[in-house]
Here is the input.
Amino acid sequence: DVARSRRASGYPVARSWRRARQLVPDAKVALISVAGHYAADVARQALDDGCHVMMFSDNVSVEAEVELKLAARRRGLIVMGPDCGTSVIGGVPLAFANRMPKGPIAVIGASGTGIQEICSQIAARGAGITHAIGLGGRDLSAAVGGISALTAIDFVAADAASRVVVFVSKPPAPEVKARVLAALKLMQRPVVALFLGDRQAVRRDGNVHFAQTLDGAAALAVDLANVDSQASHQPSASGLGICGLYTGGTLAAEAAQLLADALGLHADETHAEGYMLRSGGHRVIDLGDDLYTRGRPHPMIDPTLRNEMIRALADEPTYGVLLLDVVLGYGANADPAGVTARAVAEMRAGRGGAPITVIATLTGTDQDPQDRASQAAKLEEAGIVIAESTRTAVELALRLVQPPVAGIGAPPPLLAAPPAIVNIGLRGFADELQAGGTNVVHYLWEPIAGGNQRLQRLVAALQ
Amino acid sequence: DVARSRRASGYPVARSWRRARQLVPDAKVALISVAGHYAADVARQALDDGCHVMMFSDNVSVEAEVELKLAARRRGLIVMGPDCGTSVIGGVPLAFANRMPKGPIAVIGASGTGIQEICSQIAARGAGITHAIGLGGRDLSAAVGGISALTAIDFVAADAASRVVVFVSKPPAPEVKARVLAALKLMQRPVVALFLGDRQAVRRDGNVHFAQTLDGAAALAVDLANVDSQASHQPSASGLGICGLYTGGTLAAEAAQLLADALGLHADETHAEGYMLRSGGHRVIDLGDDLYTRGRPHPMIDPTLRNEMIRALADEPTYGVLLLDVVLGYGANADPAGVTARAVAEMRAGRGGAPITVIATLTGTDQDPQDRASQAAKLEEAGIVIAESTRTAVELALRLVQPPVAGIGAPPPLLAAPPAIVNIGLRGFADELQAGGTNVVHYLWEPIAGGNQRLQRLVAALQ
Here is the structure.
């Protein structure tokens, strides 16, 4: 019947774990959906044989979960579950998962539909994922302590392709949350953390951004992935300063605030000489300040002063990023992009090759007199990066002056390539894996003595 | 030279305020950009003649600002400024402003480039504004007390076309912030408040949503405007309950949390019987809870139970909105939208005409086996509204059960139609207004005695 079963399904079927591994020797994950009572034993067998485990089964004791997860961690493996409904490893959708476009975002979550919704929202914004690693609903409880969360974070931290990370769960136990946050802060790349229902006053803690909703987490992750992609086309400015020269006071204030939040600095409340930020080797100046406009037209009208300050950066190699606003509309200069582009070109010519990335936001509409599209083209032609908002401009600047050291070396085996799977339990999962082109073997597992518990106790005693 | 000046400019030019009003009798706004020393007197003249004032001039004393603003408020007028660089009234861009597409969002702000950036971000998302009312940077200071902010809020509250409001400023003086927030909370429509740099832990207070960045404020306002537009195609459910029936636990948790936040209720922490929320006449149930899955397939696979609960709403007229998740992907039902649509149709047939709006989120990607586009089409054909996220689904549900009583009666005169303008000071502003098709008269204002202060004192003494 094994042969017949195989012919019907189109994938290999085995009567024993050993036979299953012979049929698919490079299987890396055991997808277990047998009744909870038996799931732990099956998982042990898989772990002992060097396989990661995704445990769809629920009704598994906390004690067994902890024992399995510790055993896995000792072997450099991970147990996703129990009661883990969703994972996507190397594009392979496990159990309840969506077929996702590939992309630079890794999702780690102790929530099945949370992972699915975030992944779907990422796809809806034209982005994709490397992996989505489910943890099981109890992983972040005090009893389990986040064992698999920490393992998943280690794996993703070593995966260079995962450029941005989203971590989603219901609010963990406080001590577990602290442990997970500490690990996320060491990930050397942007992280979006969503502890659903947790009213986080702080929006950011170093590389970790706190979201409040599933779609908000996805939108933020996609923004950060776009910034990362933009950064990859720019010279590094590692350790250099960020200089912001703004014609608009509110834009300067926002840039200064966001930089200060990210770098743990203090924005300049006094605005002396128009400085909104002057610390940590970075500065942001509001050129609309009275100091610069007394007896002189506003810099939105007359760019002379700002252009002088742009050119002066030729002699300031300690600055590696220049932030600018270009404001269109009535009352403003007829060609703000043109005049700015020329000043930037002159500045660069005088820097003796020392690179500087210039990032501009372009405030205005398609109906404005300066024709937004042509203004954008002028900036791009001058090698000026256009950011969609002050927020993403600041993210790009930060990314350049603090480049992440993402995953040097090979990714962990589990994440290196689409894994082959040993499926144990619900046959449908194997059917769908095979339909999706995944190398799968179905292990026709049955409980010892056909599930007769009296006989099982006898066998156990004999063993 | 007046005639010659007119011929050159194409718009009427006058030597006196009286003559200017004769040339453009329906002028509603005086745009003042004379030197600060004289601006208050010119403003007084305009207010005395029933004209609103936009004061671009700065270097105007606080005392004069307060006196002018109180005088204006007594007359049902507003003083935008001093140092007010940006307003757009009825599509007319005043001073530094962008030409904006029309739409349902009103912006009120004590920050020029803040208004410009938010308006531009709104336009970038395909939406538009009714008005953008500048207040001047000092309006929200303790000394001025938010006089024009309160007037602007009154005006917009009476303007039915302004369906969503964005309020932007740097953090006001505490007592002024409280006053402004109290007025915003009475506006009977969604408000997005951005006090730039203010770390607001609470994300929402009744109808007021708190944003953190300029682009975040714009994105939220556009979301709320889209919800408002969706709601206009749905029957009112005023005072009725919201029922959420979810297959995904995290989606249920998010819906319950957002409803609780908005309605000042408490989400059900115990999740007894899968209830995530059970108060205020509303309920949200997680049908993936063990109670509903013991001995029965998960509702994502087998919709039978949820369909029964959907049909049961035929006999529950106290519910006017049904929230659902439809989850695609491997492991899920082959046609979740189809089975759900049928149950909804049966439910509606049994409601004896009592309307109910059904709102679904559709979790999945275009690559999923169920073909997302065709699933969406099935929901829409069944009259089920598809929301982009749980967050916007909840906003639509709230909008229907708590319909705003937006601006009955005619809008205030200033906002009723594109205003004609008396321009006093910078000639360029008049040129641009005229180029943009606005009815403008330029008042060739000059200081008394040509600005000779000794002579001015003499004239004043004689008067």
